Amino acid sequence: MPINTTTDKELSWQETALCAQTGPEFFFPAPGSSTREAKQLCGACEGRVACLEYALAHDERFGVWGGLSEKERYSLKRDRG
């Protein structure tokens, strides 16, 4: 049984994601740097919701995913219970 249980369908949003067309520095900024540019790109991306759900399901702790920073995702996950 494979350890990684992510299916191709779960990752199909990555094919058209705007982040795939830019460098990682927008989405994984240095500590204390702005996440504004990444959030703007995420806001225009068709895969934003799927990206956010992926990050929440896989406990992504670093970077901007689905338009939310680490702190924002933690808060959302906490509020969802």
Could you give a short description of this structure?
The chain has 81 residues and is mainly α. It is built from three helices and no strands. The chain is globular.
What can you see in these coordinates?
The chain is mostly helical and 81 residues long. It has helices spanning 36-43, 48-57, 70-80. The longest helix is centred in the last third of the chain and has 11 residues, at 70-80. The N and C termini lie far apart (30 Å).
Short descriptors:
mainly alpha; 81 residues
Radius of gyration (Å): 13 Å
Order of helices and strands: HHH
- Mean pLDDT over the full residue set: 88
Helix and strand content put the structural class at: mainly alpha
**Beta strands, count:** 0
Helical segment count: 3
- The level of helicity is 25-40%
Uncertain parts: none
Approximate shape: globular
End-to-end separation:
30 Å
